[in-house]
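2024-03-11 09:14:02 DEBUG pipeline.ingest accepted 1 chain
2024-03-11 09:14:02 DEBUG pipeline.ingest length=338
2024-03-11 09:14:03 DEBUG pipeline.predict start
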Amino acid sequence: MKILVTGGAGYIASHTNLELLNAGYDVVAFDNFSNSSIESIHRVERLTGKKISFYETDLLDKEALTDIFSKENIDAVIHFAGLKAVGESCEIPLKYFKNNLSGTITLLEVMESFGVKNLVFSSSATVYGDPETVPVTEDFPLSATNPYGRTKLMIEEMLRDIYKADSSWNIAILRYFNPIGAHESGEIGEDPNGIPNNLVPYIAKVASGVLDKIHVFGNDYDTPDGTGVRDYIHVVDLSLGHIKAIEKLQENPGLVTYNLGTGVGYSVFDIIHNYEKACGKKLPYVIDPRRPGDIAVTYADPSKALKELGWKAERGIDKMCEDTYRWQSKYPNGYKSK
């Protein structure tokens, strides 16, 4: 079975490529390298001893996508490609709408023209907005507090409308909570361009001396220590969730939606202290004002994924921080390290 992975050189995609290859799938991938590196593709090939059929192209390039589908006999698509920084989306919303929405429409049009109607969509817990209660279940009301989250929500709505119009589609919407960690080999991990937007890669850069201090955005939330609480999930557990979703699509389930999280909420200070344990030193931090679009608390109820996919997160916060530190120690400048 041949799987097309969009945004295939990215953080979650690279770990998913590895698990797909290990599970016996053929992987075709494309990426425009706006926030990724070809080195992740090479490392996955070395780790698995298998080849990825890779194309450098953009999600918005319909001709290039058509060419990929013409050359490769695609059975299903895992759609990761998209801009993903909450803060940046508040500054340049038009770019997010054009890339994430128009790009997804282009992909869906090409899929439909080739009769490929099996899709796993990389959604996000941001579609729950600021939930009134936790843990969050899949039937919670949907909203968005920032343009990034709005693009995920709009794509979900598009997919629901497409399925209503044509029930021959099989679509798994996966709502991730907060992916962190790295492959235990330390060979692949999160490697954002420039200064990281997300907490753990930023902490990792401070621990390795690339950045001088951690910025904690807000310590006045209604949480046990005043900092935001999130459900952090190991990227390998998340990747294995995609394998389970691909298996589910083979049962022709129609449109299904799952939370992928651990069901446990950790605060920003919890993450900092666990990372200090992993790297064996204290890490400097400063308290900054809250960021626009951030919420106080969210964590998943992942029981539906356990019941219907047979999936659950196995790796705890210690493992998440240890694996991140191993990756960052080996490659302090990510894939650009010598």
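2024-03-11 09:14:41 DEBUG pipeline.report The longest helix spans residues 93-113.
2024-03-11 09:14:41 DEBUG pipeline.predict end
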